[in-house]
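Journal club side-thread
Mid-discussion, someone asked how the predicted structure for our own chain would compare to the paper's figures. Pasting it here so we can look after the session.
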Amino acid sequence: MYAVFAIYGVSKITVGTYLKGAERWTKVFLTFAYFVECMLFYFHLHGRTELNIRLHTLEVLAVFMCVLFSAGEIWFPRDDVLPWLRTWATFLQGTWMLQVGSTLYHPLRNDDYSWDEDDHLNVKFFSMIFAWHCILGIVVVTLQIILIKTTMRCVFGALPSSYTGLNGDAEENHLVFIGGRNNTSDEECQIFSQEILTSEEEG
């Protein structure tokens, strides 16, 4: 799992420095990394208690959503919603991983301080806790969207309506700069951006 995410990191650096214009390949490696993580967690359930299986199954669900949203970004790179959904799913798997660790492997765990892992009520309780993690992720990502867009408007002025802050490709960066500094319309931003990109390719 560490290896595939390291490969994704190398691909991100390589594309950003030497292979500009091939940003979609970073999404391919990210999707592959999420897939490997999902597979490893899925086959991590044999011989465990009912609560342990439920906690890890919910983690598999969170990682699988990361796979879906990241794969969607490969086929729909200009979609505004998918990057935020991937951010939400990644946040969810992270917070749930902390929940799993604190529940099953707490450093103070002993006979007096532990969950009955075969009690069905505890299994249902943690399914409800997972739902609250989902809600927490939505709240955090929503606040992140508001903070990013508010900050960018303060820095650049008016932003193109399609700006999300996560896609990060060259064309969108030109749109933000041109639209913010000159207060032009989205259509004018598209024309100016295309001219800039064309001149860069010719140069």
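Post-session note: The chain is about 75% helix and 0% strand.
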